[in-house]
Structure formats: structure tokens, C-alpha cells
Amino acid sequence: MMTGKCGIISGGERDTLSGIEDCGLIIACDKGYEYARAAGVRPGLLVGDFDSYTGPLPEDIPRLDLPAEKDDTDTMAAVRYAIAQGYGELRIYCALGGRADHLLGNIQALSFCAERGVRASIVGGCCRIDVIKNSVISLEEQNGYFSVISLSDVSTVTIENAKYELSDARLTNSFPVGVSNRWKNGEAWVKVKDGTAAVIRVKE
User: Fold this and answer.
1) What is this structure's pTM?
2) Is residue 100 very low, low, confident or very high in pLDDT (cuts 50, 70, 90)?
3) I want to staple 82 with a disulfide (CB 3.0 to 4.6 A). Which of 87, 168, 174, 185 is the partner?
């Protein structure tokens, strides 16, 4: 059984590391080490080809060196490592903004986790992205909105306690019908079955 939390600091735009202190293992990917050092966070592992971070690296922190030419991104390599170590929840930081292809790749990494029964999210100061497969997620009410976007061909989605509610609705990955929902009163619930979907929360 997979347990414990792992925090992964990616090399996208610098962002909050809120809640990373709850993680049993912290992995800094390439430029993510710069963000960790600036925030006074000490990683337990460094991962990457270090093409975007050119400063000195500490000799007393284990390092997983990757080649510049590879199939996995640095973040994906960290995700694979964390899952192999048995962590049941992954929080990926500094993975928003910057290159759009990296953001989409990071969302695919969340799907990779969901396929393996691992809870994973991209955490930012104004946005949080979760990907769930055949599962339920509760969304604490906040000042903002949330969206549910199918990543599989078809997802059967139920949304409760929201301005726009659904009951076993069929969402596809070719039409954004689940964008810009709001809380009704308190916690909202999203249930996905027969598919995989991204749940995106944005603060105003």
C-alpha cells in the first residue's frame, strides 16, 4: 500500500511552496533547487540534467543525474522515483506558468499517477490542478472558481453543491463544457467514473 507525501519542486515559474513542510521527501528538479534554496527548504534528493540551473550543487544531498537527451522530463523522472519509493501522494510545486508544453506535460504526469492509484496535484499560489480517475474529490469553498475537464475520450462526471451541477454527465476531451463553475455553499464534490479528468481550482 502506498503511503506518505512527496513534494516535487519543478523548474517552471517560481511559486509558493506552501504545505511542502508536510512532505516526508522533497525532490528538487533542476532549477527547482534554486527555488528551494531561496525558500530555505532543504531537499532530500536532486533530480535533473541541470541545464536550467548552473550554480553549485551541494555535495551532501543525493543526486539523480539525468542525460540531456531523454524521454522523461526532470519532473516526470522525479514522479517515477517517488512512486517507486511507495509514496501515495505527490505535490508538484513551481509547475505552472512558463512553457505551455511543460505545463501540459506536468498534467500528463498527474494522469500517470492517477493511472497507478497515486493521488497527485500541481500546487500554486493562485491555482491547483488535480487529476482523478474513477474517484471522488472534495473541493473546499474558496473565492474563485473551478473547472472539470475530461482527459479521456469520455468521463462520467457528477458535480454536487455547485452553481452548475451534473449527475452522471458524459464529458468528452473535445468540448470544454465543465469550465468555470462556482461553489454553492460550502464544500463541493466531484466524482469521476469510467474516465480521467482534471479538476482545476483558481483563486480570484
Assistant:
1) 0.92
2) confident
3) 87
